[in-house]
Amino acid sequence: MKQVVLVALFVVVALAACKQGLGDRCQVNSDCSDGLICSAATGTCESPTSTGIDASVPGQVDAGIDAHVFMDAKVFMDAP
Length: 80
What we know:
By secondary structure, the protein is mainly alpha-helical. 20% of the residues lie in helices and 5% in strands. It has one helix at 2-17, and strands at 37-38, 45-46. Strands 1-2 form a two-stranded antiparallel sheet.
């Protein structure tokens, strides 16, 4: 009886160890550890809140456009 319990415990531990961690390869969500999902785009386990794209912008962004165009010198053609 003791051997059966040990084998069952080994199987449970072995199956739990098969789960992939963050950034590991996967094919379906069940391949990933708890709290992670399998990204179809990258084929890796990712956090459900991550998109794989860093869209953060450091500091402030000035989206204003300066529509004034100034020319420093006039352009002349040398030959007709």
